[in-house]
Write a structure and sequence with these properties.
Elements (H helix, E strand, L loop, with lengths): L3 H19 L5 H36 L5 H21 L12 H7 L3 H32 L5 H16 L2 H7 L11 H10 L1 H25 L11
């Protein structure tokens, strides 16, 4: 019964959500709305559990002097500062437990949480993504080798898009008359991004949607039971 009861609840809730999508009237509509509210409440507790798990995992690594353990201390201290600032003084949109004093606002120019987010987190994120650009260039060099017709087509499209997105593309094809504007590299890049790239992205999204539907049906029908802790 330890496995059958959760499977029955999963089947009932999943079937109810599916039916409410096609029959959005009482009682299915009200039940679906209530279940969605319960989901948000459970998600809130999941966030708390995730934060506690973050502390537990990092404290264990610090206690065992794992490689690069000082970085785990920085992560915990940074996380604690953000949480404390958010709870005590809130953000620009949400008030905190304490009233933000004029002296603090004059010193930071904004609330402490917003100040740290804007002047530290955003700059660190920009630095990280700037470093990722070098790894992406290295990965592109390995991926764009013309080893097959497909990779050759990918290489040509990537070169055209990269050239068309920069001023080099306009400089190289700027001499072509306007009557042959479709040969301009910026126009070629826009065409590739608008039609073949969009079609490919939509195909991927459709396949992902079908995969989600298939996985959901497996869970609702009890075929997929890994969420119960088994195989």
């Amino acid at each position: 019964m330890r496995r059958q009861i959760p499977m029955i609840i999963t089947f009932f809730v999943g079937a109810l959500i599916i039916v409410s999508e096609f029959i959005p009237h009482r009682p299915f509509g009200n039940l679906s709305t209530s279940l969605e509210g319960w989901f948000l409440i459970i998600s809130g507790f999941a966030i708390i559990l995730g934060q506690l798990s973050l502390f537990k995992v990092n404290i264990i690594k610090i206690h065992r002097k794992a490689p690069n353990w000082p970085y785990f201390i920085i992560a915990l201290v940074s996380f604690s500062i953000m949480v404390i600032c958010g709870i005590l003084w809130g953000t620009q949109q949400q008030p905190g437990l304490l009233q933000t004093s004029d002296k603090m606002l004059n010193f930071f120019g904004m609330k402490p949480f917003d100040y740290i987010f804007k002047y530290m987190f955003e700059n660190l994120s920009a630095t990280m993504f700037s470093l990722l650009a070098f790894f992406m260039a290295s990965a592109s060099y390995r991926a764009f080798r013309a080893r097959s017709p497909e990779s050759t087509l990918l290489l040509i499209a990537a070169v055209l898009v990269m050239l068309g997105r920069t001023t080099i593309g306009s400089t190289l094809t700027g001499w072509i008359p306007e009557s042959l504007g479709f040969l301009h590299l910026p126009n070629i890049a826009s065409f590739i991004m608008k039609y073949p790239n969009t079609a490919g992205q939509r195909a991927i999204m459709i396949c992902a949607g079908l995969g989600v539907i298939g996985s959901s049906l497996r869970i609702i029908l009890g075929i997929e039971r890994s969420y119960l802790g088994g195989k």
